[in-house]
Amino acid sequence: MTTALLRFPYVIGRGLTGSLDHVGRVTLLLVEMVRGLPQVRTWFPLTVREAYNVGVGSLFIVLLVSGFAGAVTALQTGYQFTGNIPYYVVGSLVVESVVLELGPVLTGLILAGRIGARYAAELGTMRVTEQIDALESLGRSPASYLVIPRVLAGLIMVPVLVIVADLVGIVSGWWFARQVLPLTDADFVYGARAFWRPFDAYYSLIKAFFFAASITIIPCYMGFSTQHGAEGVGRATTYAVVASSVMILLLDTVLAQILLH
């Protein structure tokens, strides 16, 4: 017991210094990105290719997840609202749930697994095979070739995918709501417009932008920091997905507190 109590300050200090070390390394990576932005001819064609891979490559899974999210929301609403509550409330609940929460959060979590894992594995493999070291020895900025295209592609395409997810989720919720409730199109539209605020759409895009930064910057940092061969690549990939997912949930809470209150 005494030994455990004596080790407690050591564990806390080690965790604190490790966290500060990660913050410093991420800051240096961001500085390298800013320094590489003037090299437009280097990162622009790579950004276009990455944007295509992120957008088109992730479209199917985003459509699938958002469609099921809207369907489940409508079916649960049909189960719960079977009393004296007017049916047009279903339209409001489906639209607000999808736009404010389900669309951006589920899309962010899915892309954290798909994009984040790929970025961390690619850059981690390049680090342990010394390809990044070769770029540095040639006087080239690895950030211009490897980080900036990936981050910019995510910042551009993730909000677009969130918009698509919001629209598909609403349409799916509308269709399934009509299957379980005596709900007309006019009722659904009236309910959707009754409690709609124009800021809701901006809020969804703001969350998408912050989520995009999380699922691109964190995996790129994890890939750049990879060590110890193939085992390190696997560890970095796992840490990247977990850290990105946790950051998405944390940002979701913080942004809701700041922007909605």
Distance between the termini: 45 Å
| Major beta-sheet overview | none
| Structural class by sheet pairing and helices | mainly alpha
How many helix segments? 8
pLDDT average, as an integer? 85
- Supply the number of structural domains: 1
Task: Tell me the strand percentage band.
Answer: under 5%
What string, H for helix and E for strand, traces the elements in order?
HHHHHHHH
Shape: elongated
Radius of gyration: 22 Å
Low-confidence stretches: none
Report the helical percentage.
over 70%
**Total count of strands:** 0
SSE topology:
Elements: H1 2-36, H2 40-80, H3 88-128, H4 131-137, H5 142-180, H6 185-194, H7 198-224, H8 229-259
Helix pairs in contact: 1-5, 2-3, 2-5, 3-5, 3-6, 3-7, 3-8, 5-7, 7-8
Notes on the protein architecture:
The protein has helices at residues 2-36, 40-80, 88-128, 131-137, 142-180, 185-194, 198-224, 229-259. It has 261 residues and is mainly alpha-helical. The N and C termini lie far apart (45 Å).
What would a concise description of this structure say?
The protein has 261 residues and is mainly α. The protein has helices at residues 2-36, 40-80, 88-128, 131-137, 142-180, 185-194, 198-224, 229-259.
What attributes does this structure have?
single chain, 261 residues, mainly alpha, 8 helices
